[in-house]
Design a protein that fits this description.
Mean pLDDT: 82
Largest sheet: none
Distance between the termini: 36 Å
CATH topology: Arc Repressor Mutant, subunit A
Strand content: under 5%
CATH architecture: Orthogonal Bundle
Radius of gyration: 18 Å
CATH class: Mainly Alpha
Number of helices: 9
CATH superfamily: Winged helix-like DNA-binding domain superfamily/Winged helix DNA-binding domain
């Protein structure tokens, strides 16, 4: 889908066209879900927060504006997901899990994939990055955002996004033992 088609869908969504809102859900849900899943490493919570992201999108679509530095619609949507995750992490520090004392049904396919050795190594290596580097890599690689959109989400410049991405990738390569061609 090109930018002009997306702009038309967003314009219709701002006008509360239900078909356009569902198209935006179809276009972005998987990317938003994967972005959240990699951060939370919990399928149920990721599904919940992804759903909340789109609920908030529908509730606040009127507030979306096309500021040149704002990162466009994708940046705005991922900013909503980011803010919901920040709230989730804050809540985790102050509350005990509701499932405490109850048996769970077992891991789902996404959790099993995360438990796979190579995926687990990558997730572990992400913990060695700075928060900004990790955020940039997740938005760029998992979320599929452009440098401009990523800059809008985290409130920095495109140049800083590129620098954070470069340093983050270099650090990941070092942690994972990936050889680079010099």
């Amino acid at each position: 889908m090109d930018d002009d088609e997306l702009k038309l869908i967003v314009d219709r969504a701002v006008a509360r066209d239900l078909t356009a809102l569902s198209q935006l859900y179809e276009i972005y849900y998987d990317r938003v879900y994967r972005y959240i899943l990699v951060r939370l490493r919990n399928v149920t919570e990721a599904e919940d927060l992804a759903g909340q992201t789109f609920l908030r999108m529908v509730e606040r679509i009127d507030s979306f504006s096309r500021r040149p530095s704002g990162g466009g619609f994708a940046g705005w949507l991922f900013k909503i997901a980011h803010n919901l995750m920040v709230d989730w992490f804050r809540a985790q520090r102050t509350t005990a899990p509701l499932t405490e004392g109850y048996e769970t049904a077992g891991p789902g396919p996404e959790e099993l994939a995360i438990e796979d050795g190579s995926v687990r190594e990558i997730l572990k290596a992400l913990d060695f990055l700075s928060a900004d580097q990790r955020q940039v890599l997740l938005l760029r690689l998992i979320g599929g955002l452009s440098c401009r959109e990523t800059a809008g989400v985290i409130g920095t410049t495109e140049g800083n996004v590129r620098a954070l991405q470069h340093r983050g990738v270099q650090k990941l390569r070092g942690k994972l033992g990936v050889m680079t061609n010099v």
